[in-house]
């Protein structure tokens, strides 16, 4: 699986000011640390950057390329800033992201075609968030058709079904899993990607990794290609790299209907088992789900 480090983000309390002040040191230190942690790409999220994006994006791209040769995921809704970054990158980048909104899909795909960039295809439609797996599937077909129409191959598309917080709406959490189970059939050759940490938004910080890791393992059952993740969750990295087969097997067996005997599980496995129940809707989410 391809891991994309999420940590270079305008919303960060340390990186946000560094970006605004054009202070390279904190950004370069973080880029090195993410690379050493074992991710495959670095996501550079500069936010909308409406006023300064065209100067900021190439600056941060060059700043990071001075210290690491990892490929980059350029993350902004400002297409002018995106193009400035695309003109600066050394390796084939990912455009993160292009949605199906009428004012974004055309210009975004033309930009991807012009620079031969890969594309995160965000399944946000003209009417907003898809309501269920079927709407997600329709949006996939629509996006692939529009991309193919201008000569972008399926292999350049990274389908993002949009992860939403389990603390808000369990049906959206389940719908994404349903979409993943059919994605290979409706969009052959396309890759998949999720913004994993969104699943735990609104959850107390110490509990967030249990949701992130468990949901990742659930999506691995359906051959998830890539995820945008916290580069410093070492357990998550180990799960992806095949170093924790026990929890992965447990999660997948539970998805197939097994009801494990908690007394036979390790303390870690019990936490994953309880989290599977929350993420599949078998038990209600609360901040105390691991204690119940």
What does this structure look like?
The mean pLDDT is about 95. The protein has helices at about 15-20, 25-35, 55-65, 80-85, 100-115, 135-150, 170-185, 210-220, 235-240, 245-255, 265-280; strands at about 1-10, 40-45, 70-75, 95-100, 120, 155-160, 190-195, 225-230. The chain has an eight-stranded parallel beta barrel, surrounded by five helices. The chain starts with a strand and ends in a 13-residue tail after the last helix. Helix 3 (about 55-65) packs parallel to helix 4 (about 80-85). It is of the alpha/beta class and about 290 residues long. Helix content is about 45%, strand content about 15%. The relative contact order is 0.10. The chain has one domain (about 1-235): Dihydropteroate synthase-like (TIM Barrel, Alpha-Beta Barrel), CATH 3.20.20.20.
Task: Sum this structure up briefly.
The protein is an alpha/beta fold.
CATH fold name? TIM Barrel
Strand content: 5-15%
The CATH top-level class label: Alpha Beta
Helical amount? 40-55%
Radius of gyration: 19 Å
Classified in CATH, the superfamily is Dihydropteroate synthase-like
- Tell me the number of strands: 8
Q: Return the structural class.
A: alpha/beta
Mean pLDDT: 97
What does the main sheet amount to? 8 strands, parallel, barrel
Low-confidence stretches: none
**CATH architecture title:** Alpha-Beta Barrel
Order of helices and strands: EHHEHEHEHEHEHEHEHHH
Through-space gap between termini:
33 Å
Number of domains: 1
Number of helices: 11
Order of strands across the widest beta sheet? 1-2-3-4-5-6-7-8
Shape: globular
């Amino acid at each position: 699986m391809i891991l994309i480090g999420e940590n270079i983000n305008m919303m960060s309390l340390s990186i946000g000011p560094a970006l605004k002040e054009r202070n390279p040191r904190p950004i370069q230190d973080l880029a090195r640390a993410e690379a050493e942690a074992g991710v495959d790409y670095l996501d550079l999220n500069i936010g909308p950057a409406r006023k300064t994006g065209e100067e900021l994006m190439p600056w941060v791209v060059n700043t990071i390329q001075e210290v690491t040769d990892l490929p980059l995921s350029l993350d902004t809704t400002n297409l002018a800033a995106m193009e400035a970054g695309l003109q600066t990158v050394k390796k084939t980048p990912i455009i993160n992201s292009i949605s199906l909104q009428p004012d974004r899909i055309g210009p975004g795909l033309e930009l991807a075609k012009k620079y031969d960039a890969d594309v995160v295809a965000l399944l946000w439609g003209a009417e907003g968030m898809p309501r269920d797996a079927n709407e997600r599937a329709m949006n996939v077909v629509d996006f692939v058709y529009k991309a193919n129409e201008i000569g972008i191959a399926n292999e350049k598309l990274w389908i993002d079904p949009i992860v939403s917080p389990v603390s808000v709406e369990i049906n959206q959490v389940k719908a994404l899993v349903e979409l993943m189970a059919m994605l290979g059939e409706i969009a052959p050759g396309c890759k998949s990607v999720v913004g994993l940490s969104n699943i735990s938004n609104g959850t107390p910080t110490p509990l967030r990794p249990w949701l992130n890791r468990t949901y990742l393992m659930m999506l691995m059952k359906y051959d998830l290609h890539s995820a945008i993740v916290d580069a410093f969750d070492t357990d998550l990295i180990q799960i992806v790299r095949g170093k924790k087969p026990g929890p992965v097997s447990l999660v997948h067996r539970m998805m197939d209907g097994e009801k494990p005997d908690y007394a036979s599980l390790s303390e870690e496995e019990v936490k994953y088992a309880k989290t599977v129940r929350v993420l599949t809707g078998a038990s209600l989410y609360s901040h105390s789900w691991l204690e119940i």
